[in-house]
């Protein structure tokens, strides 16, 4: 059957022309419609119908729809791009944290490996054993020294095991890279239910075969001797010794010590409280078999300071937090479990919230890429983007004719850029150049913070406390500073617990050696800032005078009169030195203590919404339940309740109705009144009046029954009331009646 003809396709004269016309018709896509050829299975038509006219939309509507679609596509594009930038920025932060933790533990890891190398030489010095002797069930040697099990006690000083899990995992990877055979056992393997057989099976599954189900030490000895593994030592890591079953761990130590010569096994035990913690859980026989060495990891506070310095005070990703957010993060770190894992989790949530709330956070991508302006070649710096940038609160809080200073460090000179009402070409170039200069040049504010931290180390101050205080944009020392008044405890510039005040007061108690160490650290920290470095170098002559006064010959054997004169001379030089150091601190705070919140466009880099972070971490489940019960229609999206306003309808959920009625009562609710109000909502007055009215027509009665449902029965209302009250009790919003007052319930939570 020949295909039928249509208006869109005139009948071709030949097969070739037909093929060409078909291809042209399919590729000819019109703006509003596409003309296709009829299918071969359609019935032929005798007449050709006129083509229906398809009217194009009006230009205004088309323009509006195009704008809306473009805006929607742009919003989707920027949302996806912000998510990608967040992944890039967070991967940079995460890699930095991992490098810091690896460096902080590298010294201990290297010490453990050196201890293993030294200990294995003493084991091999007793003589090599044949294969038959090595796999024999009974010991070959009976000397007490041959039954010593070399053990490393690693003190973690953590209350929780969250940080220790990653630490011992990295230790195992480090020892494996050095050629050791490593197996890791947790406290769950040392349970009384599994016994020592479960520990041996766990070791054999990690060393010999994953599917092995036999607890026999001879299998481990055969594997070590036959497969050419005797060149490398065997290391067993127990991450949390204090949570293990003492009897099971003691039995394992006794078994392994019997095979110490045949299989050189080294035991690494992690303890969190003290090095002598195994004395409290192990038996006396097991303790005699241990040849222990002690290693101590850095404390959680020290690791926190190292992470804080690498992420916020040194060039990393550009992301930072405000003063209030830093205070909340410190409180969360101290009040929760005090682990670095919780702090990193808080930091990640803050970073994610920043990228979800601030559109211009997408410009942080250039901090992870060297020598590239933000938005360069991507079209991100549009007019709308620049308008949003100059509408930020950090920019609009200044008057329109006010000069905003951007402290770009170029040749140690400060440049001033004017921001007017109009966005010109120069102003459009300021924002990317500002971020690029922050990326390339070191930040003097972070240098000042590190200098204060070096001085605060003598008073055991933590960098986290100093960081939180120096982030405060409303600090009094930003306006004026009086070090002499602070030293005399007469200043109201700093509070009683101010770290600045503690640092200045501690300077008077430092010895000449401590002052010399402080100057050396300041000199290395301020090497890139000539103005601060010159002030530090001016302190060296005073330091030499202090050292000369303290090293005068003949002081120990001199008479008391001369000794007192020399001592007064030393005190005088120390006081002069302390005053000079205080003056340098005053200079640094006055000139360079510019927190990030005082810099224009800081919203691009700085996360400030502490409420969002708090709700994401802590949450408010009871408050959420209350708000959901009062606004249930917004969640259910039902048509019957969407237009209700403040009126309660029978179609609402029973628990929502009951909780809304509870808002009319105080802390004590009368059950009878509460039930009557609930019943009134379920059976309105108009339904009662209609039920009493009589109609003569049967058709009208049937019509009313079809339109309105019958009111619920009394028993059904009571059952629904009891179920709703029980749900409120389970949610923790009310307390059930007591024997003293059986007719009343008490409200436990009140909506804000």
TrEMBL record:
**Coiled-coil ranges (or none):** none
Q: Where is this region: Disordered?
A: 1-23, 39-60, 689-712
Arranged from A to Z, the UniProt key words for this protein are: DNA replication, DNA-binding, Nucleus
Q: A biological process (GO) annotation for this entry?
A: DNA replication initiation
> Is Methyltransferase one of the keywords?
no
One GO molecular function term? DNA replication origin binding
Q: Where's it found, cell-wise?
A: Nucleus
Q: What is its main location?
A: nucleus
Database matches in InterPro entries? ORC3 (IPR020795), ORC3_N (IPR045667), ORC_WH_C (IPR040855)
- Decide whether keyword Nucleus is in the record: yes
Question: What range(s) does the Origin recognition complex subunit 3 winged helix C-terminal domain occupy?
Answer: 622-750
Annotated Basic residues bias: 689-703
Name the GO cellular-component terms: DNA replication preinitiation complex; nuclear origin of replication recognition complex; nuclear pre-replicative complex
Q: Where is the Origin recognition complex subunit 3 N-terminal domain?
A: 35-363
Entry similarity comment? Belongs to the ORC3 family.
What's the protein here called?
Origin recognition complex subunit 3 winged helix C-terminal domain-containing protein
Q: What is the lineage of its organism?
A: Eukaryota, Viridiplantae, Streptophyta, Embryophyta, Tracheophyta
């Amino acid at each position: 059957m020949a295909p039928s003809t249509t208006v869109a396709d005139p009948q071709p004269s030949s097969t070739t022309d037909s093929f060409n016309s078909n291809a042209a018709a399919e590729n000819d896509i019109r703006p509003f419609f596409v003309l296709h050829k009829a299918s071969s299975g359609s019935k032929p038509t005798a007449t050709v119908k006129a083509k229906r006219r398809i009217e194009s939309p009006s230009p205004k509507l088309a323009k509006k729809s195009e704008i809306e679609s473009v805006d929607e596509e742009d919003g989707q594009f920027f949302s996806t791009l912000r998510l990608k930038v967040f992944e890039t920025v967070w991967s940079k932060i995460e890699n930095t944290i991992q490098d810091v933790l690896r460096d902080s533990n590298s010294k201990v890891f290297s010490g453990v490996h050196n201890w293993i190398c030294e200990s294995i030489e003493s084991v091999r010095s007793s003589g090599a054993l044949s294969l038959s002797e090595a796999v024999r069930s009974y010991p070959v040697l009976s000397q007490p020294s041959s039954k010593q099990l070399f053990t490393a006690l690693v003190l973690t000083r953590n209350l929780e095991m969250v940080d220790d899990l990653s630490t011992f995992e990295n230790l195992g990877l480090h020892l494996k890279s050095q050629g050791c055979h490593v197996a890791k056992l947790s406290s769950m393997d040392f349970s009384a239910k599994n016994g020592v057989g479960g520990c041996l099976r766990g070791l054999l599954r990690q060393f010999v075969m994953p599917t092995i189900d036999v607890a026999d030490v001879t299998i481990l000895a055969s594997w070590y001797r036959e497969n050419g593994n005797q060149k490398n030592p065997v290391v067993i890591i127990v991450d949390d010794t204090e949570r293990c079953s003492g009897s099971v761990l003691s039995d394992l130590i006794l078994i392994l010590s019997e095979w110490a010569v045949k299989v050189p096994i080294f035991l690494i035990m992690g303890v969190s409280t003290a090095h002598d913690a195994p004395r409290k859980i192990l038996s006396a026989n097991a303790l005699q078999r241990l040849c222990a060495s002690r290693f101590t990891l850095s404390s959680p506070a020290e690791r926190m300071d190292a992470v804080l310095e690498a992420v916020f005070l040194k060039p990393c990703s550009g992301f930072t937090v405000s003063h209030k957010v830093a205070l909340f993060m410190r409180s969360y770190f101290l009040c929760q479990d005090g682990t670095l894992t919780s702090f990193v989790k808080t930091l990640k949530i803050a970073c994610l919230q920043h990228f979800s709330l601030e559109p211009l956070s997408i410009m942080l991508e250039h901090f992870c890429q060297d020598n590239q302006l933000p938005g360069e070649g991507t079209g991100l710096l549009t007019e709308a983007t620049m308008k949003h940038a100059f509408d930020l609160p950090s920019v609009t809080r200044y008057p329109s004719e006010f000069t905003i200073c951007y402290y770009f460090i170029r040749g140690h000179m400060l440049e001033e850029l004017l921001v007017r009402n109009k966005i010109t070409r120069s102003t459009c170039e300021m924002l990317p150049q500002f971020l690029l200069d922050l990326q390339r040049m070191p930040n003097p504010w972070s240098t000042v913070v590190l200098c204060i931290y070096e001085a605060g180390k003598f008073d055991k101050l933590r960098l986290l406390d100093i960081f939180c205080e120096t982030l405060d944009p409303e600090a009094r020392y930003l306006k004026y500073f009086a070090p002499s008044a602070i030293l005399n405890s007469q200043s109201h510039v700093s509070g009683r617990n101010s770290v600045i005040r503690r640092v200045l007061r501690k300077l008077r108690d430092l010895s000449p050696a401590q002052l010399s160490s402080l100057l050396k650290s300041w000199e290395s920290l301020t090497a890139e800032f000539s103005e601060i470095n010159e002030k530090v170098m001016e302190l060296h002559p005073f330091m030499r005078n202090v050292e000369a006064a303290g090293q005068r010959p003949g002081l120990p054997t001199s008479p008391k009169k001369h000794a007192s004169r020399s001592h007064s001379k030393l005190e005088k030089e120390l006081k002069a030195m302390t005053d000079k150091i205080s003056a340098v601190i005053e200079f640094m705070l006055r000139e360079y203590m510019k927190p990030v919140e005082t810099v224009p466009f800081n919203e691009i880099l700085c996360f400030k919404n502490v409420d969002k972070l708090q709700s994401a971490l802590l949450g408010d489940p009871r408050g959420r339940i209350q708000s959901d019960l009062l606004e249930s229609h917004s969640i259910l999206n039902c048509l019957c309740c969407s237009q209700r306003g403040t009126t309660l309808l029978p179609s609402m959920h029973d628990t929502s109705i009951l909780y809304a009625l509870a808002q009319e009562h105080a802390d004590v609710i009368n059950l009878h009144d509460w039930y009557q109000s609930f019943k009134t909502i379920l059976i309105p007055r108009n339904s009662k009046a209609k039920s009493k009215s009589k109609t003569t027509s049967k058709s009208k009665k049937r019509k009313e029954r079809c339109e309105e449902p019958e009111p619920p029965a009394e028993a059904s209302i009571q059952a629904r009331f009891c179920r709703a009250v029980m749900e409120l009790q389970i949610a923790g919003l009310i307390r059930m009646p007591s024997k003293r007052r059986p007719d009343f319930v008490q409200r436990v939570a009140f909506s804000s």
